[in-house]
Amino acid sequence: xxxxxxxxxxxxxxxxxxxxxxxxxxxxxxxxxxxxxxxxxxxxxxxxxxxxxxxxxxxxxxxxxxxxxxxxxxxxxxxxxxxxxxxxxxxxxxxxxxxxxxxxxxxxxxxxxxxxxxxxxxxxxxxxxxxxxxxxxxxxxxxxxxxxxxxxxxxxxxxxxxxxxxxxxxxxxxxxxxxxxxxxxxxxxxxxxxxxxxxxxxxxxxxxxxxxxxxxxxxxxxxxxxxxxxxxxxxxxxxxxxxxxxxxxxxxxxxxxxxxxxxxxxxxxxxxxxxxxxxxxxxxxxxxxxxxxxxxxxxxxxxxxxxxxxxxxxxxxxxxxxxxxxxxxxxxxxxxxxxxxxxxxxxxxxxxxxxxxxxxxxxxxxxxxxxxxxxxxxxxxxxxxxxxxxxxxxxxxxxxxxxxxxxxxxxxxxxxxxxxxxxxxxxxxxxxxxxxxxxxxxxxxxxxxxxxxxxxxxxxxxxxxxxxxxxxxxxxxxxxxxxxxxxxxxxxxxxxxxxxxxxxxxxxxxxxxxxxxxxxxxxxxxxxxxxxxxxxxxxxxxxxxxxxxxxxxxxxxxxxxxxxxxxxxxxxxxxxxxxxxxxxxxxxxxxxxxxxxxxxxxxxxxxxxxxxxxxxxxxxxxxxxxxxxxxxxxxxxxxxxxxxxxxxxxxxxxxxxxxxxxxxxxxxxxxxxxxxxxxxxxxxxxxxxxxxxxxxxxxxxxxxxxxxxxxxxxxxxxxxxxxxxxxxxxxxxxxxxxxxxxxxxxxxxxxxxxxxxxxxxxxxxxxxxxxxxxxxxxxxxxxxxxxxxxxxxxxxxxxxxxxxxxxxxxxxxxxxxxxxxxxxxxxxxxxxxxxxxxxx
Length: 840
Hints:
20 strands; organic radical; PFL_dom; six-stranded mixed sheet; Glycyl radical diol dehydratase GrpM; GRE; alpha/beta; lyase
């Protein structure tokens, strides 16, 4: 039997989960107030020492809470699933949204009046002192204009902390925070006082010691609180639990863990403390099954059932972390995304299979909890046991959008090509959405920017103009092109220009973080910051990268191929006709779409007429009739010809159907971006590396892109990641995957993202499971990097839109993360609904 099914979670896990599902997230003010007071008090100190004093004050004074039923304790906020504000990065956008954040389109948060008042008081200190203000001062006006024009954005780290890292959990499990303090003291004692960098290193080491002493005190506060609650507890079982929690918090993370329960508590303290120090998201647990399993294997006193419940509790706690962003960024990260990527399986550093019993328990925990966090991933290679892959496919069939699946055979050599050693590359984990890195050795700056390749295409088609403004270089009007070589030359020039601006913006933000917000607590958990005596933000990691990600690749590829095919090869269109059609949005208002132009009754009547006429229903007949009706009612002059032009463009073969001549155009366009990015270096001494994944920015930044030569209307969503355009991969899942595999995933070493959506019936039974496993193996054999799945039918999603209260536990894959479907903005929901429903 391939199908094993899943056990039921305990009542405790169901209660903890229900609490998270029912609460509304709040913005809290305590951290902002404490950080501001510390900054004011220690203005005279160097940046690294000020940061140490900030974290010291926060760890000593941030309110703590132990919630009912918890076995793993430690919270960033008093309210469940809520967030604190970190004004040292930015604050203006928060103040602007005091009245609107509760009601905004994406990721609303409640800000109580008293909280707003406390934040307003704290914010008075911060004008001109934040990382965002310093970063902005480094950027040229031309770069800011390109960002405003929708070419790219660096809002992720411009407004918040960097995050996007996996730290050395295993080191803390082994030696505790006391061991780290001892290591730092040893390095401090060996410093050469004659060297010019002595003072900076000495300050860094002192900052780490202060931070870790405060972190120990923070854990001890939880020990005291658990003991206090135990004294007042009447339920004997809960009293024993609280007493053990108190004992655990006195032991860890100050000392090494001796039991699996203590190991789980250590893991969570590290995770929550990193969130408290900085507002960076994508603090990713990495290879949880590798560093945690030795403590499970050595714990002879624990039952399998209780061990599973502890893992489930860790999964619950990961969903307690939340983050608010400015209104625009919230749309790009829709679904309260925090991207805590936890990875199992793969290889050991020696190249042996790494699967262990905890790998399977993590899958069981995912089935039990069924919440968006962790962003659960598995690694697959030629030595992966079939049982492991089939078990992962069973989890996928639950419809949670996890696990995402990654290919060792691509990622390991891609990392080696960036200078990562073979041993470290084999030990890779996944950060945030889809970004590979050597854990606890890397400052990857993944998600450093969103880059809109489709917008660069639009600018190329308009001789460097966007919205009537000359944003890019003058490269020639499209009507003057004599062939595709002229297009590619212009596209390359525009790409060179805008990638240079992208790098300027990223490096501006990078410099600002290094100067104003070095993070001593985080830095001590990444190699080799202690050895180098340097914070992570100043280049202390062994491997340093900057990873901007692109989206709109499929739209660009399909558009370029449409020009090649319909203009230069078959002559069905002239460049002048195409230019006119694009400028008029194919005869539609800028915010319209064909679907919106016909009522539901009109569509139903149209379908019935086709059935009566033809005796059957054909998709091509429906499309033809839609265009005919739209053309007959369109008002603008020439709209019938525009509709005809659009029909020609839309009938051009598309990326996603295993057609070489089409797919290789998309590959070429993606490579132009990737190769331009990798020419640059960052202030930490590392290389830029490209990724191709969108979060949900393909919806948001699609609004900045006009009509395209693939027939897409202005402002419509773009394709997500390396996936084909919605509904265009009609030749089946294997053909679609084959197209995606033709992109050069090795050069896009910051990660690529491929979404597929399956009908549940397609994967049912053992036959469905075998087909599913074969699809993954086949795609990986062709050198695809990553794939993830939604297993849900359209009707379920539509019902959830109409009745969100009855579908709060419906979790879907958005992009590189999963989210509750009902909390997504409607336009993001519509984008997910529109994806092709595959079947075998």
